[in-house]
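fwd from M.: "can u put these together and see what the complex looks like"

so here's what she sent:
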Amino acid sequence: MNNRMIIGLEVHVELKTKSKMFCRCSTEYFGKEPNTHTCPICLGLPGALPYPNRQAIEWCILIGLALNCEILNHSKFDRKNYFYPDLPKGYQISQYDLPFCINGKINVDFNDKQKSIRIRRVHMEEDTGKLIHQTINGKGVSLIDFNRSGVPLVEIVTEPDFENAFEVKQYLQKLQQIVRYLGVSDADMEKGQMRLEPNISISLNLKSNDLPKYKVEVKNINSFSFVEKAINYELKRQLEILEKGQTPLQETRGWDENKQATVSQRIKEEANDYRYFPEPDIPPIELTDAEIKSIKNTLPELPDQKTDRFQKEYLLTAYDAQILTRERALTDYFEEACELGKNENITPKQIANLIINKKINPDEVLPAELIKQIILTHKNNDIGEEELRQVIQKILKTYPNIAVEYASGKENILQFAIGQVMYIIKKKIDINLVRKLILEELK
Amino acid sequence: MKNLTLKSAKEKLIKKEISAKELTKFYLERIKKLDKEINSFNIVCEKEALEQAEKADKLLSEKQDLPLLGIPIAIKDLFSTKGVQTTASSNVLKGYIPPYDATVIQKLKDAGAIILGKTNCDAWAHGSSGENSDFGPTKNPWDQTRTPGGSSSGSASAVTADFALASTGTDTGGSIRLPASFTNTVGLKPTYGRVSRYGVIAMASSLDSIGHFTKTVEDSALFLNITAGKDQMDATTPDVPVPDYTKSLNQDIKGLRIGVPKEFFIDGLDLKIRQAIKNALKFYEEEGAEIIEVSLPNTEHAIATYYIIQPAEVSSNLARYDGIRYGNSRESFGAEAKRRIMLGTFTLSVGYYDAYYKKAMRIRTLIKQDYEKVFEKVDAIVAPVSPSMPWKLGEKINDPLTMYLSDIFTVTGNLAGIPGLSVPAGFSEGLPIGMQISGPQFSEELLFRLGHKFEINHDFYTKQPEL
Amino acid sequence: MVIDVLHISKLANLTLNDKEIKLFEKQLSSVLDYIQKLQQVNTDNIGETSQITGLVNITRKDENTPSLQQPDAIANGKKIHNGLFEVNAILEQ
C-alpha cells in the first residue's frame, strides 16, 4: 500500500437524563408533537437563563473516566457563537479550553490485535433544534422543531489514530457498548442518540508521521454501515485527487445515501469564527480530587473487565465471554443464572452453551426457568443403571474378544467397549459410570 | 393622593382612607393627562391594573398583609411580563408578548403590587439619556428640553412625575443611578446577583444589576425586601440571606468611615455637583462620620474596559433576535444597537480576543482589587454620579464616544459588582443633583442607613417637578 | 484603528447599507482608538475576572417541570406551519 489513511472521530452522545442540560423540560421528545417540550430557556426567549443539570455533568465525567481520561479540577462552560435557525440563542453553550475530561485512551480489538485509540477530550454541550426540509406550495422551506433543543450532549473527540473503516466501526461499537453499560445513554443511532463525524485525510508519505495539511469532515452519518461506505468513498475520492498531484479541499461534506457518495456542503468557512468566551451566566465547576475519586467509585464493571473476569471465573472462552458481555441485560441475566445453578451442580459453561446455542431471550425466560430446563434435559438423558448393564452384557456377548484381550492385559480394548456402549445408547451418559460397570461385568 | 410615598400609601390603604382602586385610578388619570409630553410609558395596562386593584381591595378588606398590597408600580420595558407586550423599547421586539413573568415580576405580583404599565428606555438599555429608544425619548419632568438620564429613563421619570409609587430598572453601567440623579429620585443598583435576572432582557450578563426607583430611601428598602434573594432560575444569585432592609435605617452613623475617591473629582466635574457632594460630606462629618480620601487608581481605564466587556456580551445576547420564534427582522435594530453588536463581535473575533476581551477581563480584576483595598480602609464611598448636569436632548447624540464618557463615575461599580444608591443631594438652576453611596458587596443595609440619614435631614426629596 | 465593517457585519448577521457602513466605520474607529489605551496598562500576572460573584458549582437536580404548551411556544412566531417554525429553505445542513 502506498498511502496511509488518517481518521479522527468526533462522536456526540445524547444523555438520557430526565431533564435537559440547562432547563427542566423533559428529554423524552422523540416522536412527540413539535414544540411541546420547550420552555423560555431552550426556546431562547428574551430574558431566559441557563441552569446546569448536575446529573448530566456527572455522567459526562463518568464517560471520561470509562475512557481513562484525566478529569480537570477546574472547568467551565463557554459560548460558541454562530447563527443558524436551529440554534435559538444564536450561541451554543459548550466547553472550549477547559473541558471536563482530557487525555484518555481506549483499547479496541482488531482481529486478535489490540490498538490503543487516544481520546483528546470529552466535554459537555447542548443540542440544537431539528430542521426539516419541505416544499410547501412549490416553495422550499425549512421547518424547525425545538423539542430537541437543550438536550444534553457529550462530545467525545479522538486523536487521528484510525487507519481504516473497520477500526472506526470497532471503536464505535465499543463506545456504544460502554455508554450503554454506564446507563447514561441508549446510543441508538437511528434515533440520533449517537452521531458521528469522521475527519478524514490521506498521506502519501509513508516515511513521515506528519499530518496532511488538509482534512475533510463528513457529516450526516446515521448508521454503522454508512460509516464504512462514507470512509471508503472518501478514500477513493481523496486518493484520486492526490494522485493527480493536487490537495483535496479542506471542507465539510455530507453523506448522501441516495447518491451513495459524500457531497460538498457549501457552508461559508468565514462563518466559523466562533468567538468563544466564558459563559457569564454559569459559574465555573471545581472538583476536588476526592470528589473525582468518589465519582470514579460509581463506575460499574466495564465490558473489558467483565470479559476478562468471565473467562477466569466462569472458565468461558473469549468468544463466549464476548457474546455474553455484549449487553448489560444479558450479562446480569447470565450471572444470576450461574448463581442459581450453583445449588444444582450446573456449570456456567452449561448455562452459557444453552444461552448462546439456543439464543435464549432473557425477556422471555427467567433465570430460574433456565436452570430448570437444564436439569430436565439431564433427567431425560439419564439412563438407569440396570438398562446400562443390559447393554453392556449384550456388547460383551457380541464381542467376546473384549473379555479375552482385557484378560491378557490390553486395557485399550476398554475404549472400544465404551465406544460401542455410547454408540448404542446415543444419549449423554457418564463415561466413568460406563467404564465402572464394564469392569464389573468383566469380573 | 398626590405626592404619596410607598410607605404613606400603604398606611392610607390599611387605614382605609383610600382604596386601591382609587389610588390606581389616580395614577392612570395622571398618566393619561400628562404622559403625552413626558413619554415615560410604552404601554399602559389600564384594564389589568384596575382588575388587580379590585382584587387588592378585596384582600385589604380581609386584612391580608402583603407587603405591596394595592401599590401601583411601573415596570421598565426590559422585564418580561406574561401576557403584556415587552419590547426593550426596540422595533425588533414590537408586538412580542412573553409567555412568562420575570422572577422579579412574579415576586412583585405575589407581594400584591399593581402593574400600571411598561416604561420607556434606551432600546436594549443601550444608552445614558433615553434618546436611543425606538419610541421617542422620555423628557425630564424637571425640564422637558433635557434628558432624564438613561437607560431607565421612563422608570425614573414616572416616579418623579408621580405616575407611580415605584418602578423597576436595570443598571449595567449606571442606568439606574444616572437617571435617579437627574430626576431627584432614589435609585438603587443592588449588588450583582442580589436580585434575580431571570426574565429580564439581558444586556451584559456579567454586569446587569436589577434595581428600582422610589421617592424615598425607606421605600427603596421596602422594595428590596421583595425583590432580593437567591433564585432557582438564575445561577448567578448567591445564597445570601435577605434581611429586613428597613430595620436598621435609623441606626446611628457615628464612627462610620466614608471614603472620597480622588479620581472622581476631576477637572471636568461640574462645579455645582462638586459643591453638592462637598456639602453632603460636611453633613456626614457633622453627624460623626469620618471622611477619608481614598484612591481608585484604575478608574481612568474603567470606560475602556467597560466598553470592551459590555458590547462583547451584548453582541452575544442579541444574537437570539433573528425574527424566527418571535420579534421582527434584525434590520429593525437601531443604530446604537448595531454599533454595539459590531464592536462586541469585533473584540471577540479571531486575532483580537487576547488584545481586547482578555485584556479587559484582567483590568476588571484590577478595578475589583482597587475597591477591595479601599473597603479595608472605609465602610462606604460617597461620590458624584455624573460629571455633568442633565444635558439637552440632542446635544450628545451624534458622537457615541461623548455619550459613553458620561458613565465615568458609575461603570466601576458594575465592573466590581458592588451596590450603589443614588440619593437626591441638591439642585442647580432647577435641575436635580444626585450623590452616589457605594459599599462592598451585600452592604445595601449600610447604604440605606447613610442615605436615609441624609434624606430626612434635608428636604430635597420633598420637591416635585411642575407638570 | 479601522474595522472591516462589512466582514464584521456578516459575522454579526447584520445587513448594513452603504451609508451605515461609512458612518459606523468612522464612529467605531474613534471608539476603538479610545479603547486602545488599555494596551498600555501592565497586566502581567493578573488573572481574568469573568465572574464577579465568586460562585462555583451551581448546579441543579435532574428533575422535570412542565414545558410550555405548544400554542404558547409558537404564539410569537410570524410563520408557523403545523406547529413548526417556518423559514426560507436552508441550503444544505
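replying to her w this: The first strand of chain B starts at residue 41 and ends at 44.
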